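Sat 14:20. Reprocessing the chain from the morning session after the first attempt stalled halfway. Input below, unchanged.
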Amino acid sequence: MGLFSKEACVFCDTEVGMLKRSKLQTKEYICNECKKKTNPFARMDYTSKDNAQIMMDNLAQEAADFEASFDDAENRFQSAERSFKTWDLGSHRVQYRCNTRLGAFQIISEKHSGYEHTPVFYFDMMIPYQFSSENKNLEDIRKNEVLDTDAEYVTVKEEKDMEGKLTSCTVIIPYNDICIREIKLEGSINDESDKDTFYGLAEKINKDRLSWINNGIFDQERKNKMQIRNLGDTAAAVLKAAATGGNVEEAVKQGINTANDIEDGKVKQGFFGKLFRK
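Finished this time. Tokens:
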């Protein structure tokens, strides 16, 4: 009876059978067409109606922001790959690209053809999922896990048959999101050597995550040096204004504005440590 019964989609109100719908975590139903507006790696049984709507509302903008991020990716630690690279994971083909300045990457799986948007994933979410409430200590622990330079969170799981022959591999990317606990990229293989591509993709994503961390460390060190320089310049400007009858408040205000611009990334460091605005 359940196979032939129909239920209304909570988003479009279309009545669909069991094979054309999924049950949400909130026990409501989403039809396959509306599901294609969400993140293809989201588990519907982890996803509430509200969270599904958030995905529908935000995926397009996140993809647009990611595309725009390639125009501002110049740094010795950064890796910005505007073009997708194809990875043949046995019987499964995926495409991957990354921008370590933004700290994000995209994956396109041929198994998810028909979805409206290519999802964007973020390195600061790429840690094993853990349910969390409002807990400062847990928040600090999670932050340390995100910034762990020794961790290689992306792994490969091998599956073998009864005779010990390798039959499939799965690249597993942990993700600390209530709707997406893991990103799994599975493919059947015919030869032992086919697994190398799986391990190659896992290594690539792990290295990109490390580049993102190193980029953040470099940026923070650069900002600290610029702030020290700005503090000295501001002090000198204040003393000069006070000695010459100039506007001391304006000199202080200018220093504060420059400090804020440094934190916001609106001030760059040029040759010889000089500061200039974009």
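The chain is about 35% helix and 20% strand.
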